[in-house]
Amino acid sequence: MSVNVSNTRFFALIPCAGNGSRAGTTGPKQYEPIAGRPMVMHTLAAFAAVKRIARTLVVVAQGDGFFTRNFAPVTAAACGGETRAISVVNGLHELRKVGADGRDWVLVHDAARCLITPQLIDGLIDACQEDDVGGLLAQKLVDTLKTERGGRVAETLSREDKWLAQTPQMFRIGRLIEAMEQAGDSVTDEASAMEALGQRPLLVPGGPQNFKVTYPDDFALAEAVLKGRQR
Ligand SMILES: Nc1ccn([C@@H]2O[C@H](COP(=O)(O)OP(=O)(O)OP(=O)(O)O)[C@@H](O)[C@H]2O)c(=O)n1
Ligand SMILES: C[C@](O)(CO)[C@H](O)COP(=O)(O)O
Hints:
This protein is an alpha/beta fold and 231 residues long.
């Protein structure tokens, strides 16, 4: 059964309060320069280009002065928590405080996925806006999948039904708050919180370029892609 989409709005929530401990940077990785500007500014530029997004809220760590200094055209809330899940829940409550309705949609997207494009965001909205549950960008597994025991292969699994979860992940704000609060502080994405409520989010093909900058080598790759797009 599809839902009435006429009055619902779309919000974006960008968790940006991590330390980037795997990235090997001196400060939080999301502010490292990539292709001429801080990583998170590429992420925000993609969302700014999607006109049907009513408002973008960036969740930063307490004491983070980046958005004050940079006067970025976004709302920043210093309500980041110990884990990504806590940052997201706090951000969702902040969205409700600034006027979002529980039935409005939210697209939660990692600041660290700075190669997201307006086309991918629009594609996710188009695919999910009439769905009862919502969904996420994801990438079908291309490699052969092994499990490991003691440094050796334990088993080769079928890759036919395996996808890598990406962001944005798009759900109704009210239901997502309920799901995230029940799932707890260590859940690693929004879809798994919804799954724990018995929901089956839509898998919407993203792309290999929408990777999360996580390890030191990822910065050069992200820079090459962004510079390629600027040409
Ligand atoms: N407590 C946290 C942890 C993460 N994030 C954000 O969630 C996104 C995905 O997290 P990840 O890439 O794992 O970032 P970090 O937690 O910063 O990295 P690491 O695990 O290497 O420390 C990032 O945009 C990050 O800033 C957040 O808002 N609050
Ligand atoms: C949400 C996410 O980017 C989907 O792949 C991922 O789960 C974030 O996890 P991390 O452990 O914070 O890197």
